[in-house]
């Protein structure tokens, strides 16, 4: 004799059935056709007055599994998009961890504290862990800032950096039902209707979206990046806070024109939230670098992509940290040379570059470097690239007066009479010390600390510079690139590659700097990298 369901069990079945129908976006009549039952049956079951037959109950379970609708479903349902909600979440960080961490970094940049006096290694680990946990739920711009801090700040301990870097893989993912709803909205189909295999659990989680593994009917494996619903509103809330900080910072950085950084951030983030633009960027870079040995960029499957879904070839390889810890010095040198040429040539020859050189955007396969994530791409005008090339040539050729004039003509020095150009020249030469010699140069932690000091606490003109908006992400790219090379401890002829980009084949190349010249620069260490 079959068991008769209780009223509470029937109500639970009714609730589950309504939820499946709502996620599918169907009316009761359409749901009846989907389940192949009489059109009035759905209404009776959803009222809770009738028990689901065994076959229908089983079918409901299959649909719940397909849609990721489980009673114990975990993950993020909605992002905190309002400014008030996000500010409240930030205030709940234990002891305002984020503020203290970033504040400590700024204190070291603006002041003269030694790294060992900032925070102990153990305290840094605790701070970074709390930041990773809290920012993982916030996503958006705050998570981006923490990810960048995790690999660029060489004054953080190794353990603290590792904690922050967990944001790439360990932050909470979206609930499967939310992902399914997004597919239905963008494609009108379930993930398993678009792919013959679909993994509900993402294998990578970022600040704007998460990445799933899937397979096509022909067996090809693909990576499917799914954007967080509400991320546009989330970033908009973040930008409103940044706009306030932009106004406050004008009291410190008095030479900087107000609103410049906020405008550039808004433009770049708006593009990053449209995966159709990212797909175009990725294909452009892939085609441009298709003939370069050692570099690989996955192909985009445009017909299966949309504004919030990006499908590309799945490449499986070693992560940045795994490669760095395992690879031989020569393997790391080769990888560093490939990454360096990719960024320098993209900027100098084509006026376009990937502005997010995060370690999580690289894989290493059989000696090849695989480039991932082309959401944040910056394009420069030919005149801007020409100006930068002319400026760097001035420094390589020791024409410091000409460099001074280029900076003034570009509007970067609002008050030349009160600006310390000698300090500025030392900062530039410290930054580009890897191309001042003919001997191989090794990027390392010591170099990054000299670079940060030269651009921060030793830079007496940092409050009197007016940086144009187009150079914000160029500086981010350069700092990120140098940080990557330093973490690889890459050694090579970086000067030769840069001279190749700055000079025509028939032009005379400048002589390298001597030890005596370098010793006079103060912050540039005159040492031979052997």
Overview of this structure, please?
It is a single chain. By secondary structure, this protein is of the alpha+beta class. Among the domains are: 7-67, 434 Repressor (Amino-terminal Domain), CATH 1.10.260.40; 83-168, no CATH class; 318-530, no CATH class. 53% of the residues lie in helices and 8% in strands. It is built from 23 helices and twelve strands. The protein has helices spanning 7-24, 28-35, 39-47, 54-67, 83-91, 97-110, 121-138, 140-152, 158-165, 176-187, 191-194, 231-249, 260-272, 275-288, 320-326, 329-350, 382-396, 400-409, 421-431, 445-455, 472-488, 494-502, 515-519, and strands at residues 197-198, 204-205, 209-215, 221-227, 295-296, 309-313, 352-354, 362-365, 368-371, 377-379, 441-442, 491-492. The strands form four sheets. Strands 1, 2, 3, 4 and 6 form a five-stranded antiparallel beta sheet that branches. A hairpin with a 5-residue loop joins β3 and β4. α12 (231-249) packs antiparallel against α13 and α19 (421-431) packs antiparallel against α20 (445-455). It is elongated, with a radius of gyration of 27 Å.
Present the secondary structure layout.
Blueprint: H1 7-24, H2 28-35, H3 39-47, H4 54-67, H5 83-91, H6 97-110, H7 121-138, H8 140-152, H9 158-165, H10 176-187, H11 191-194, E1 197-198, E2 204-205, E3 209-215, E4 221-227, H12 231-249, H13 260-272, H14 275-288, E5 295-296, E6 309-313, H15 320-326, H16 329-350, E7 352-354, E8 362-365, E9 368-371, E10 377-379, H17 382-396, H18 400-409, H19 421-431, E11 441-442, H20 445-455, H21 472-488, E12 491-492, H22 494-502, H23 515-519
Parallel strand pairs: 5-9
Antiparallel strand pairs: 1-3, 2-3, 3-4, 4-6, 7-10, 8-9, 11-12
